[in-house]
Amino acid sequence: MRDYLTLGPTPWDEECVQVVSGGDYFDAMKSECSRYKELLQIRFHDRPEGVTFAVKTFPHDFGSYCEAAVCYDNADESQVSYAIYCEHNTPRHWGDTVAQSYSDWLEHEREDD
Prior knowledge:
The protein is an alpha+beta fold. It has one domain (2-112). The chain has three helices and three strands; from the N terminus they run E-H-E-E-H-H. It is globular, with a radius of gyration of 15 Å.
């Protein structure tokens, strides 16, 4: 079954567009999340087939908000593992464009077991 993990609206040490009651923020927020999704696609280039990135919209007391997400099939162990890998390796800054190696991460995880 398709599932997802949210990865935030921006890299974790960057400012992001805030939900504002009655404010005109949503287009800027969606654009920012789309930019973050593009960064994630660069950073996590070696995705297993079926793993994608998306911008998800969620309700909030003052309106809607967006976050980037990694989408995967929760019945496929390799896709679940990759989604967790993405969640643990989100970029800190907008400039963190260096591609990450999933196979290196897997090897390190096995060494720790």
